[in-house]
Design a protein that fits this description.
The structure is a single chain. The protein has about 700 residues and is of the alpha/beta class. The protein is built from 25 helices and 30 strands. The strands form 8 sheets. The protein has a 7-stranded mixed β-sheet. Strand 14 (about 365) and strand 15 (about 370) form a beta hairpin. Helix 9 (about 240-250) crosses helix 13. The two termini are about 45 Å apart. The protein binds iron/sulfur cluster (SF4). The site of iron/sulfur cluster (SF4) has 14 residues, from helix 1 and helix 8.
């Protein structure tokens, strides 16, 4: 019937999934989305991938939360999630909004007033709008009184952002994805764009057709690798060895851009000294790439008229994630491959608003626009902007995602407010994370489905899905775009901005924002990089790139053309040495686990597994195993295998997949029935505090555990 229906309205918006930020049109009839079409946005030019085109009907799913829920006093909190809506009412009872808000906010206030400001923490969401992220972090900083606020950027690119801020003074990309069409050489390392940024991958393929040379460096052979000029399948965990060897070649063969180094950077001498010990001959056996190939690729990158590096979580999700990113930055700086069209650095941002949520201050050490909380002048600026008495804001950086879980276990954090995040699925060593969430005195979860995290809540506040609200979203290219409301929330579900403000009121704050535009207006006046973008302009133009420092500015899609946003205006080299993964394979756990995403499913699967087409394509949990490893187990594709690490075990289907290197197994983290994060290692990169999702030791046996 939907196929025959004629829409009664069309609403211009953006895709709710990845950081590419494709613009789309919702075709709606009777408050129901019939279908979605691509729109001519700057990042997609009407292209959409399977998620953007077919992943919309989760919003109409019968599992939607439509009324506030309060946990029954007798319902024990256990981490064993049960996906059975009938079972839900054994655990929760329905409540009015008035009762739910009074309990949700009242108990948080009580914990704050009796146990102290640091006894509370909040997780916001990279799937929410900029305005939601901004208000949420403001609520934690002003209402809770600490900087214990974070979101899943900690789990994806925190190490990249740390290295970028340290090295070049900005955590965002230097060039948009589309610049690959202007580059002579493109390196894609630790990223699988055809799966995770599909429309971006189409621009890379178009560039290849026009003569751009693609170099893919990855332990897993992605589809893009099959189109690459060179594919370097280096051994997992050896990024620094490979990248330092490339820099060694560039120094040794005098392929550096001396003018750029002299005029635009500091610290080159230490870098040069450091990479002297990393000759390709020495590094070849470590990283598994022969010395001649390392030399060829180093020359190709250094000598082209324009080289870009795009990277993903294969780089960032290691205990040496910050060091990996430092090496990529150093490669660009020493060759002058940054600061011009078709030449730069692009960490591919994962979720549709992870860039914007980080920009808006949803991180424990920074206010909006990366102004440090431990900087007295920045604190004073925000106290003034938020009309607070002097010295009200906490000068101490807060705790990060995984640190908050540990602090709960130690009894230091007793109450949490989680908006749209699902740490009970997405955190490393998730049994530990679930135990921590269950140990809270009070957990408030605001979401659209009963997620694995909501299952452990004391109060659940039913929120709005992406097409049910209006807000701005910032894509991986620094493009601030307008997402518009297409349908109304179901039942008594409310828009997130309304809920945050109601929670603020329960905490004693009197916030009066008449509409989302008013929140954006306050936010932009605290953020020099977007102060020139007005709500009216966003409504009119749909998308504006930042930096945009004055009203009327066009916005800069390519940055660092003259200087870097550091005190000296110069970028800084930071040398890195090899640090091994926290947990290496051994006789008991001889294989390596790599986790990530599939094309059809998004993050913890709460949306895409409830989208009919996407779920039909990939309905069951699978592990991708090299055919020779599967044969060695005595197994066939489709057999059940059990994967065990020192922290847990899961059973799931095996798929023969020669893109994974022998000895490594890849598992998506979206399946609650086989929550692979029960196995992952919570060891953190010491700088970015990102967990090592891309490497831990496992053993695999044929058969299930039953
Ligand atoms: Fe959505 Fe990303 Fe696909 Fe574009 S590429 S349609 S933003 S999931």
């Amino acid at each position: 019937d939907a196929a025959l229906a004629v829409p009664d309205k069309q609403v211009e918006s953006v895709c709710p999934y990845c950081g590419v930020g494709c613009q789309l049109t919702y075709n709606v009839k009777d408050n129901h989305i019939l279908f979605v079409e691509g729109r001519d946005g700057p990042a997609n030019h009407a292209r959409l991938c399977v998620k953007g085109r077919y992943g919309f009907d989760y919003a109409h799913h019968p599992h939607r939360l439509t009324v506030p829920l309060i946990r029954r006093p007798e319902a024990k909190k256990t981490g064993d999630f049960v996906m059975d809506p009938a079972h839900v009412m054994d655990i929760f009872r329905e409540a009015s909004w008035e009762e739910a808000l009074a309990l949700a906010g009242g108990k948080l206030k009580q914990i704050r007033d009796t146990k102290g400001k640091k006894a509370l923490a909040g997780f916001g969401s990279a799937k929410g709008s900029n305005e939601e992220a901004y208000l949420f972090q403001k609520l934690v900083r002003v209402g809770f009184g600490s900087n214990n606020v974070d979101h899943c950027t900690r789990l994806c690119h925190a190490s990249s952002v740390t290295a970028l801020l340290e090295g070049i003074g900005s955590g965002a990309v230097s060039n948009p994805v589309m610049d690959v069409t202007k580059a002579e050489v493109v390196i894609v390392i630790g990223a699988n764009p055809t799966v995770n940024h599909p429309v971006a991958a189409t621009w890379i393929k178009n560039a290849i057709e026009n003569g751009t040379k693609l170099v893919v460096m990855d332990p897993r052979k992605s589809d893009l690798a099959r189109m690459a000029h060179r594919y370097l399948q280096f051994k997992p965990d050896t990024d620094v060895a490979l990248l330092n060897a490339m820099m060694h070649v560039i120094v040794h063969e005098n392929l550096v851009d001396k003018d750029f180094i002299d005029s635009r950077t500091i610290g080159y001498a230490e870098l040069e000294k450091n990479v002297a010990g990393y000759s390709p001959e020495l590094m070849a056996p470590i990283c598994g790439i022969d010395a001649d190939t390392i030399r060829d690729v180093a020359r190709l990158y250094a000598t082209s008229k324009g080289s870009m590096i795009l990277w993903g979580m294969g780089v960032s999700q290691h205990v040496h994630g910050t060091d990996n990113a430092r090496c990529l930055i150093a490669l660009a700086l020493m060759t002058g491959q940054i600061g011009k069209p078709g030449s730069g650095l692009h960490p591919l941002r994962g979720q549709n608003n992870v860039q914007g949520a980080s920009d808006a201050g949803l991180i424990p050490m920074m206010y909006p626009d990366y102004q440090r909380v431990d900087n007295a002048a920045a604190r004073a600026r925000f106290e003034q902007a938020w009309q607070l008495p002097a010295d009200t804001l906490d000068p101490q950086p807060g705790l990060t995602v995984v640190e908050i879980m540990h602090a709960i276990k130690r009894g230091e954090i007793n109450g949490m407010y989680i908006m749209g995040e699902n740490p009970a699925m997405s955190d490393p060593d998730v049994n530990h994370a679930r135990e921590s969430l269950a140990a809270l005195d009070h957990l408030v979860v605001q979401d659209i489905f009963l997620t694995e995290t909501a299952y452990l809540a004391d109060v659940i506040l039913p929120a709005s899905a992406f097409p049910e609200k209006t807000g701005s979203f910032t894509n991986t290219d620094r493009l601030v775009q307008m997402g518009r409301q297409a349908i109304d929330p179901p039942g008594q579900a409310k828009q997130d901005l309304w809920i945050i403000q109601q929670m603020a009121q329960q905490l004693g704050l009197d916030w009066q924002y008449p509409n989302v535009g008013a929140v954006f207006d306050e936010m932009r006046h605290t953020m020099p990089n977007i102060v020139g973008i007005t709500w009216e302009r966003l409504e009119r133009e749909h998308a504006v790139t930042y930096p945009c420092r004055k009203e009327g500015d066009a916005g800069e899609s390519v940055v660092f053309t003259k200087e870097f946003p550091r005190e000296t205006g110069r970028a800084r080299f930071v040398p890195a040495d090899i640090i091994p993964a926290d947990e290496r394979p051994d006789a008991d756990y001889p294989m390596v686990l790599i986790t990530g995403r599939q094309l059809e499913h998004w993050h913890t699967g709460s949306m895409t597994r409830r989208a009919a087409v996407l779920d039909a394509i990939e309905p069951d949990p699978v592990a991708l195993v090299h055919p020779l490893d599967l044969a060695a187990l005595g197994g066939q594709p489709g057999d059940i295998i059990t994967i065990t690490s020192r922290r847990g075990e899961v059973s799931l289907y095996a798929r023969a997949d020669d893109s994974s290197p022998q000895g490594a197994v890849f598992v998506p983290f979206c399946y609650y029935e086989a929550a692979i994060n029960k196995l992952t290692n919570a060891a953190l990169d010491p700088y970015g505090k990102i967990p090592e999702f891309k490497y831990c030791a496992i053993k695999v046996v044929l058969g299930g555990t039953e």
